[in-house]
Amino acid sequence: MSQSLGRALAILGELGEGPRRLDELAAKIGVHKTTVLRLLRTMQDEGFVHGDANHRYHLGSRLFALAGAALEQRGVRDIAAPHLARLNDDTGETVHLGVYEGGSVVYLDKYDSRHAIRMYSRVGLSMPLHATAIAKVLLADLPEPRRRRVADGIEYTRFTEHTITSPAELLDELSRVAAQGYALDDAEHETFIRCVAAPVRDATGRVVAAVSISVPAVVLDRDGVLALLPRLLETVRAVSADCGHAEG
């Protein structure tokens, strides 16, 4: 990768976290402000970024268009959509579709709940690998050596008192997830949210995505969330079948 391209991508990554000033970007990327300004002007000309009246830079409309096109090209999202919509209608809870890509787990689709309490999540946002049910499901399908490398490379931020905080603890959890066929986020990322997730498989049997149901703790307790598991498993089996998977 060329140095300029790498810096431009780093700038876009920073802007994905929120608006930034020139000096903030220069400090984060570790180069002089004139270099960052040159890159910003080029990206602004192409519509990838734009600057506001307060001299802060934002992601541009061209990038949003490309992101939308990328999502539309992901077959599993289109295949899963009607099934996820029905699951959302049936349960009234937040439904997510996530994938593991480039070392990160990201939300590919989301259907909001009918509750006033909403999750801070959005399509395209990456999620903690050690503290979310979807991530556990996706990591549990990795070959054992790769699973260990991923676990060793995670920064184990403690979000709540229930958060997994070590590679050994995560690996034990992933073994349980692989054996039981689903994962639970028991208030491990947010104290007021519990999630249950299960895998979507393709024709080869490989896990290509995961679906989760997320519920506010004030609505359902742990047992209540697990009571939604049969409906979730029914959904992922239907999506997997449409992806070409035949249960043996």
From TrEMBL:
The keyword DNA-binding applies. Residues 2-61 form the HTH iclR-type domain. PROSITE patterns: HTH_ICLR (PS51077), ICLR_ED (PS51078). Keywords: DNA-binding, Transcription, Transcription regulation. Residues 62-245 form the IclR-ED domain. GO terms for molecular function: DNA binding; DNA-binding transcription factor activity. One of its GO terms (biological process) is negative regulation of DNA-templated transcription. It holds the Pfam family HTH_IclR. This is IclR family transcriptional regulator. It comes from Actinomadura decatromicini.
